[in-house]
Amino acid sequence: MSSTILALVAPLIISSVALFGLLKNVDVFSAMTEGAADGLRTVVRIFPALVALLSAVYMLRASGALDALTRLCTPLLSLFGIPPETAPLIFLRPVSGSGTLGIGSELINKYGPDSLIGRTAAVMLGSTETTFYVIAVYFGAAGIRKSRHAIPAALVADIVGFVAAAATVRWLWG
Fold first, then answer.
1. Which residues contact 88 (CB under 8 A, 6 or more apart)?
2. pLDDT computed for residue 145 by the predictor
3. Residue with the larger pLDDT of the pair 56 and 117
C-alpha cells in the first residue's frame, strides 16, 4: 500500500499546483514555459564552469598528479588520524561529487564496507560538500562574480568535516 501512495505523490503535487494556478487565474502553461526558459538560461551561464571543473578532475586522475599528492600528504594525514588511502577522496571532494563517489566506491570495494577505510570514506562523503561545484552553480545562477570569503570558509568546513569524519569513525569503530 505504501508504494501505491508513493507512486501517487508526484502526480498529486503537480495536479495540486496546476489546480491552484487555475484557481488563482494564472496561465499555468506560460508560467511553466517561462520557468523552463529561465532554467535553460541558468544552464548556459554555468555550463563553462562545470566543464572546466570536470576536465580538471579527469586530468588530475589521468596524469598521476593525484597519486603523487597522496604520497606527499600521507604523513600529515596520518598525524590527523586520517587513513592515507582516503586522500584522493579528500582532494577531489571539493571539486567533483561524481568523481569522489567513484573513488569512495573503489575504496569500499577494495577494503570492504565494514573496514576502517570504507567507513571513513562513507562518512567523509556524507560530511562534506562539493564546494567548487556548489559555488560555480549557485553563484553563477545568482550572477555573483566575487565569492569573497565563501570559498575559504567552505574549504575550512570541508577540512573540519574530513577530520571529524575520521575521528568519529575511529571513535565508534576503533
1. 61, 66, 67, 70, 103
2. 83
3. 117
For 40-75, write each residue's pLDDT tens digit: 888 887 788 777 777 877 788 789 888 898 899 999
Determine which helix (DSSP H) or strand (DSSP E) holds 105, and give its type and residue range: helix 97-111
Closest CA to 61 of 102, 28, 122: 102
Q: Which residues neighbour 93 within 8 Å (Cβ) at sequence distance 6 or greater?
A: 100, 124, 125, 128, 129, 130, 131, 158, 162
Specify the pLDDT at position 48: 81
d(CA 40, CA 174): 48
Contact present, 99 and 92 (Cβ < 8 Å): yes
| Domain residue ranges in the chain | 46-173
109 DSSP 8-state letter: H
Cα–Cα distance measured from residue 131 to residue 156, given in angstroms and rounded to the nearest whole number: 10
Per-residue pLDDT band for 1 (boundaries 50, 70, 90) equals: low
pTM for this entry: 0.68
CA–CA gap between residue 115 and residue 119 (Å, rounded): 6
Nearest to 135 by CA among 164, 103, 94, 173: 94
